[in-house]
Design goal:
Blueprint: E1 5-12, E2 15-22, H1 26-46, H2 52-95
Antiparallel strand pairs: 1-2
Length: about 100
């Protein structure tokens, strides 16, 4: 094993997995495994999906959907903020009488 990596044991649906990761990412890996475990347990408890492979795929799809929704929301917020900054910049430029605006 690379000396920069540490071995981390994570438990997902009562099964242990050994994963190598940088020491400074250990906490994030453990939190990710806990989130995945929670999603998979939730799906398994619903009784609608049978089989570990199918549960894992459904959990991955659900988490991917959440990530994409978050990215879309952040992108919309960025566009809104940029529009507000441009408006404020135009107002500021008008107030100082120069008519010159800053680039964003």
């Amino acid at each position: 094993m690379n000396e920069d990596l540490t071995r981390v044991t994570v438990r997902i649906l009562d099964k242990e997995y050994q994963v190598a990761c940088p020491e400074d990412e250990r906490q994030a890996l453990q939190e990710s495994a806990e989130l995945l475990n929670s999603k998979m347990r939730e799906i398994r408890a619903s009784g609608k999906v049978v089989g570990l492979d199918r549960i894992a795929v459904m959990a991955a799809l659900n988490l991917s959907h959440e990530v994409l929704q978050t990215q879309l929301s952040a992108s919309e917020a960025d566009r809104h903020l940029l529009g507000r900054l441009r408006t404020l910049n135009d107002r500021l430029a008008g107030a100082i009488g120069g008519g010159q605006s800053l680039a964003f």
